[in-house]
TrEMBL record:
Protein source organism: Nonomuraea indica
Signal sequence, start to end: none
Record domain Glycosyl hydrolase family 13 catalytic: where: 18-396
Matching PANTHER family: ALPHA-AMYLASE FAMILY MEMBER, MALTOSE ALPHA-D-GLUCOSYLTRANSFERASE
Matches recorded under SUPFAM superfamilies: (Trans)glycosidases, Glycosyl hydrolase domain
Matches recorded under InterPro entries: GH, GH13_cat_dom, Glyco_hydro_b, O16G_dom_2, SupH-like_C
Pfam families hit by this protein: Alpha-amylase, SupH-like_C
Name of the protein described by the UniProt record: Alpha-amylase family protein
Region Disordered, residue ranges: 537-556
Length: 556
């Protein structure tokens, strides 16, 4: 494909970097990260090679769900700065070629939001119908309770007005009634506001919950998503919605707008992520390979967002009980590491025992899977966790910039990991100077990922490798091919593969030096070290490898 396509449809091979302003960098010495601190580090992010920042909620909040409980959708949490600081940050990000998206948390508000305070003040309140009320606590499906450690119902009684309100999450997060046209209008205005300030789109929180309470008798709940997307496209043609949609693949396609692709532009691949962890636990490529084979092709111009970890628990809710226990045993055997009976409150490097070779292979996998990779801040340096922190806060630790912490002039409000993952061992400054560091590896993966648009744009085929521990796949686009191999086990292997149509081609290693000629018949034997990985570009004998990419005119 032409480079112009990859800039018009920028999200299809973006590298998204999720960060919380509060934990990234403190610019004024009060121990809390802020927009001024983040702005100081824009060059670091641009240098890393990421192309789009995803800001976790930065709106005013009582902070009972780390900002996912908003009291004003049109403003900045004063602890993080002012709207002025936000605009300066946006300008600097754009200057360095970075796009920015932000969390859109409109399934619910905080119970301290002025809308809810008004709505609950009396039944006749003009805002009463902005939330979802019931005379009786409707029967709960206990399996639908998202935070079973704190809640046993999704209905909460409101003493003053004698009705129950719906809260899909915590009781302090009443659900908005998006069936109400006035609520839809207001949400649309929120999108318009931030887009006017330069955002390229939104990560939409809890999408299935957002539309679930819309009565299908009255309207197709999916219309709301299509309306939002149409609104955004009218205002800014290349803006995107990145949906948090953790549902089985067969139900998920409707969120892309079935075949139309007119709703959520990108969906996180929760199923692929969970199967990847099962594969890592077993040292067997099978579960991940099956997810890749089952995963529906997104509609034209839509994309999967791939990830290994995020700011929440590593949810394993779509595995069977037995599989979940296998992953628990491998990566979080202690009860204190588990949460909600379904997930692990851990970051990747400690789960992989700090084994750099294994960690590097895991990220190579992430960047080579078809889709748009999403990193959670600190993954690039192997940031650890703090299990002393409550629940999911364990993974939301301050970024470690230097051996002494480097978060800012003051003591960070949140505690950094210690021991093998403390700042003296894991930090940006040291890794910048170390060519063998994880930071340099991630930078290389990003560079190669961007140079190989076939990974994100092409058609992906899982190949039959002759060992169960090895995942082999190829991505083809516009006559160009990349072949990728990962050894999920810690034993070196020779892997036999048949590469149809590549007879006589040269395979050039993209992550290290090396070339292999594909013999007639297309059968190759390739070496993989323990937890080894290889990215191989195929080129015809008369084409230099660097000209054989789908981004080059030669490939067609
Ligand atoms: C999903 C977010 O990722 C999570 O952190 C939050 O608690 C819930 N939605 C509720 O907003
Ligand atoms: Ca601060």
């Amino acid at each position: 494909m032409r480079p112009t396509y990859t800039s018009d449809l920028w999200w299809k091979n973006a590298v998204i970097y999720c960060l919380d302003v509060e934990t990234f960098k403190d610019g004024n010495g009060d121990g809390i990260g802020d927009f001024r601190g983040l702005t100081q580090e824009i060059d670091y992010l641009a240098g890393l090679g990421v192309t789009c920042l995803w800001l976790m909620p930065f709106y005013p909040t009582p902070g009972k769900d780390d900002g996912y409980d908003v009291t004003d959708f049109y403003s900045v949490d004063p602890r993080l700065g002012t709207l002025g600081d936000f605009v300066e940050f946006m300008r600097t990000a754009h200057d360095r070629g970075l796009r920015v998206i932000a969390d859109l948390v409109v399934n619910h508000t905080s119970d301290q939001h002025p809308w809810f305070l008004e709505a609950r003040s009396r039944r006749e309140s003009p805002l009463r119908d902005w939330y979802v009320w019931s005379d009786v606590p409707e029967p709960d499906d206990k399996s639908q309770i998202v935070f079973p450690d704190k809640e046993d119902s999704v209905w909460e009684f409101d003493e003053k007005t004698g009705q129950y309100y719906l809260h899909s999450f915590y009781r302090h997060q009443p659900d908005l009634n998006v069936a109400n046209p006035a609520v839809r209008d207001e949400i649309t205005r929120v999108l318009g506001f931030w887009m006017e300030l330069g955002l390229s789109g939104f990560r939409v929180d809890a999408v299935p919950f957002l539309i679930e309470n819309v009565d299908p008798e009255l309207a197709d709940p999916h219309d709301f998503l299509a309306d939002l997307r149409a609104f955004m496209t009218r205002r800014k043609g290349d803006s995107v919605l990145l949906g948090e949609v953790n549902v089985p693949y067969e139900d998920l396609v409707t969120y892309f707008g079935d075949g139309l692709g007119d709703q959520v532009t990108m969906c996180f691949d929760f199923i692929g992520m969970q199967r990847a962890w099962l594969s890592l636990a077993r040292g067997d490529a099978g579960p991940l390979a099956s997810a890749l084979r089952e995963r529906p092709k997104p509609p034209k111009d839509c994309q999967w967002a791939t990830f290994l970890r995020n700011h929440d628990e590593l949810t394993l809710d779509k595995l069977t009980e037995e599989e979940r226990q296998e992953v628990f045993r491998a990566f979080g055997p202690e009860k204190s590491m588990q949460v909600f009976g379904r997930g692990l409150r851990r970051r990747l490097p400690p789960m992989l025992g700090g084994d750099l070779r294994w960690i590097k292979m895991a990220y190579s996998l992430l960047f080579s899977l078809p889709g748009t990779p999403v990193l959670f801040y600190g993954e690039e340096i192997g940031l650890g966790e703090n299990l002393e922190a409550e629940g999911r806060m364990a993974v939301r630790v301050p970024m470690q910039w230097a051996p002494e912490g480097g978060f800012g002039r003051g003591e960070p409000e949140r505690t950094m990991p210690d021991g093998a993952f403390g700042p003296e061992r894991v930090n940006v400054a040291d890794q910048k100077r170390d060519p063998g560091s994880l930071l340099r590896w991630i930078q290389l993966l990003i560079e190669r990922y961007r140079e190989c648009p076939e990974l994100a744009w092409g058609s992906c085929t899982v190949l039959d490798a002759d060992h169960p521990a090895v995942l082999a796949h190829r991505c083809d686009a516009d006559g160009a091919t990349v072949v990728i191999l990962h050894n999920l086990s810690d034993t070196a292997r020779e892997v036999g593969l048949t590469l149809d149509g590549l007879d006589g081609c040269l395979l050039t290693d993209l992550l290290e030096d090396g070339t292999t000629r594909v013999p007639d018949g297309g059968r190759v034997s390739l070496h993989l070290g323990p937890h080894g990985c290889r990215w191989l570009r195929a080129s015809a004998p008369d084409v230099p490898p660097e000209d054989a990419s789908a981004k080059s005119e030669h490939s067609r």
